[in-house]
Amino acid sequence: MDRQRRKYCRNIPWEMEDNCQVSEVSDSAELRIGNLLRLTDDSWQRVIEQSHLHPRSAPMPYSGGASPWDESSPTTTLVAFIQSTCRSCENNLPLFEVLSHNLEKLGTGDFYVLNCSSDKASCEHQKCESFPTLIAYRNFGRQRTERCRSESLTKQYLRMDYHGILTEKLVMEWYLQVSTPTVQYATKDGIGMLRRINDVSLHATLYPLSLAGKYLPAISGPNSWYPFECFQLACDRLYGKAACYGEISENLKSRDATIAQREQNMVVTQIEMHRRDNVSALVFSLGKALITTLQNEDNIQLHKFHTPHRYELKSGQRCEDNHPACTNVIVSFVTDHSRLPVTHITAAAFHTHGRKDSTGTIWYHTQFSFYRSSLGFGKEASSSIFAAGLPVLLTLATSEQLSEKATFYLDLQDIAYKFYNQVVFASLNVDEFPQWAARFVPHGYSRHVVENDKLITEDMIPDLFIYPRLCIVTAENHQRAAFLPNYVKFSLGSRAEGRTINKSNIEQFVSDFMTSPDDKWVQTELF
Description:
The protein is an alpha/beta fold.
């Protein structure tokens, strides 16, 4: 695509952009706003909906040097939604041009601008209500979806909203994170360490396709083994819920292991799911019926806190018998069993919205605000922590208080197990997300902070900024919560003295809420 031959429309008012000259690219006209590619209602499907691989994408990291997998990966398109009358949008045009240039250099996707004043259908469909809004659309890749997706999979992309401050550094850090390949290579020792730091992880054992016949039992032909790109698609669909890793089998002989480092076509012989609370499960193993591994009752800890799930499987059906069906099962199983007693909210999944498709699989959209969303509220547009349809107890605490050996965290985990099927427990690290944590306060609290600014010192600070503290929220209403400690009036407290919340306090708080929730609600700031 020859960018130099396109005609540019420079320094034009937003309201006159429709008169901008355009040049034809391929078989369609590609409009521009200033020096930026313009996305329209007519081009939306071609640019966003139609999945494709990007030939310049960075390869998946591989410790041996060159990657053994295809260097192409799905594109992540970044779209700025603007309005003609938006002064902030116009002021951010230079930043958007810098971002566009950065994406062009990276080769992982393109930057587009969509004017909601002229192309209203796309904006209404995406429910953009504030401007400018940045949204990244990460597609799954046509090569993956054609071979691995079922007919029920209608969405070809994952949506991720940016709600941070508009600076080049912050936006690019976020973009690099959301455009990184979802499957990373790791050695056995490395995977052991990664299991300890990720809430949920999937570990795939890989063989080069060229050597599969030498090591693996015959199935019904080389195309029957479960391909690596199907595992990649499953991990794309599980973005923000599970970290995915691939390891070349240790069974390869030394010479073959060297060949494997140069191999691009891989097959998967086994997938294991591991949770940070030491719960693990074998999701599938080559040659074994899926129902055998999924309903393995040997893992009592896995099934203890989960209701039984039904999967549309034929008797004796193996993963290699139907790749799209197996991919769906992997996604469904991990979604069903990934919730820990205490879910740690991370940057990758700080806010995740989802909907169920016809298979019962939940599809997620992620964004960097906890509650506020352009997609609405309720069960059909709920985040992963709201997917169970239960109240969510959000624990606001420091890194030290949330460490695995901290007394507070151990108490919290014990109560979380006790109320697992009644309340979802989640934690928000206030050291990592101080601004978001400060938003979980009663209505008018921020005004009180400003009014008492002269009384606030290094040690004496607003009482609700002393941690830990708890609040219970629901998906249906984003302006109410139940608080522990209970909020009566604005006051200051000592940072040095801190706050103590023990197991009895937590249990009593949850029990009282479950008994009479309407008595506990407090009007809050907009989360």
